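HUMAN: Forgive my ignorance: could you write out one protein's sequence and backbone structure tokens?

ASSISTANT:
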Amino acid sequence: MPDLDPEDEKIVILARSTRARTQAAEGAAVRDTDGRTYAAATVDLPSFKLSALQAAVAAAVSSGAEGLEAAAVVTAEPLVSSASVQAVRDLAADAPILRADPAGAVQEILR
């Protein structure tokens, strides 16, 4: 893992543990501007689908978050989907998005 702020490491760990616990395609976590964290996994139901990052942003917003400091997604995919990136950008134009592999190693930081 690159040198990360301990709070950024925390959201990577939360995202990884959420993915592992649910056996989902992705796990994600976000930290709001008050320092609260929200974690979620991929939602894949017949009636609707959300990426893990979209679900984590939705959890934050539904809890009253008005902005985000950072986001992390753990996935085997080589890219973060544009819909996932846009969900974060809707609340924070410049929050870093950390993409980590299933082992938790950060592969990319989107700014």
Summary: Helices lie at 6-22, 52-62, 82-89. The CA atoms of residues 72 and 98 lie 4 Å apart. The radius of gyration is 12 Å.
